[in-house]
Amino acid sequence: MSISRYELVFTDVTGATQDVVVVERTLYKGSGGHPVYTDPTGIIRAEISDRGEVRVMPSGGHQDPAHAVRARALPENDTEGDTGGDAEGPAGSGPAAPSA
Predict the structure, then answer these.
(1) What pLDDT sits at residue 26?
(2) Is the Cβ–Cβ distance between 17 and 67 less than 8 Å?
(3) pLDDT digits (tens, 9 = 90+) for 32-82
(4) Neighbouring residues of 55: CB distance < 8 A, sequence distance ≥ 6
């Protein structure tokens, strides 16, 4: 079963949560062959494996690399952004979310 929505949790080097972004599955696949997910703006794009491994993909310039990103699966019927079961994986090695 493929998951259609995740929360991406971006953390800094201290482990403190910086930002949480909800992403939805697109029709595209990343270089690893896994589905690509994006936020409503299209700025945050990430390839997420079936093991919850996250690789944040660059969508433009001036993006700082993430130190750690986790993906938490959201239930299909969730429209308010509540978290479901965790599908956490190691941090991706690619560029991350833009700085606020």
Answers:
(1) 97
(2) no
(3) 999 999 999 999 999 999 999 999 988 887 777 666 899 999 998 755 544
(4) 30, 32, 46, 47, 48, 92, 93, 94
Provide φ and ψ at 46, rounded to 5°.
Answer: -145, 140
Least Cα distance to 52 among 70, 76, 25 occurs for 70
Separation CA 48–CA 71 (nearest Å): 8
Cβ partners under 8 Å of residue 93, min gap 6:
55
d(CA 91, CA 100): 20
